[in-house]
Amino acid sequence: MKSNPCFASVATAAFVVLLACAPLAQAHNVWLEPDADGAYTVQFGGHEGKLENFAAGKLKSVEAYDARGRRIDVAVQPVPGGARATPARKAALLAAHFDNGFFSRVGEGPMVEKPMTENPGATSGVHALKFHKTILEWGPVTREKLGQTLEIIAKTRRSPHAGEPQQFQVLLNGQPWAGVRVSLGEKGEPLETDADGLVTVLPRAGLNQLLAIVRLPVSGDARTTSLSYEYLLGFSAH
């Protein structure tokens, strides 16, 4: 299902900025981890280092690309507690889309995994969508849009080096988005995208995870009152 939130009003823009400043420590994300057979295990969770099992149907897609942006076939198979993805050949970039479903609550009570229509008395709800990229090889594909609803693309051409500035751009529905809260890792310094959706980070040696979250109000959908888009971009720095 594609949601169509209205971005035009000042009230909506203010709501986006307010919720975008929510702590990233509350985020749950999806990402891919390589195994010894050239496949990737789909991981979900990450808050305080905790992983969670998930229904394979929540994983909507895994895509693979070579360094020039050409698509590579990917076989996805359910495994106990999640899913596993195997590209047909060596990939430069992997991407994933994960729909964690609808959650709702009554007043200030606990969130339950049900849409508002199935939770009597519910006063608020959220539809939680997760997006991911793993950059394995730096090249033109890292600077291209894949068309993810929330997306992070690299702007710096060179591959990352520890302690050297690396610029990225956050896009919402393909457009640069200002005021998005971004951090390197769950406990990293919170940064915010500028008017052009740009943010500059200083990678650490080894694996880096760039996190972003955007929340938007929803009207006209009885199941929820908001959308939550969360992003994890994984890359290594030398």
From TrEMBL:
Signal is among the record's keywords: yes
Leader sequence residues: 1-27
Record keywords: Signal
Domain of life of the organism encoding this protein: Bacteria
Pfam families according to UniProt: DUF4198
Protein's name in the database: Putative cobalt transport system, periplasmic-binding protein
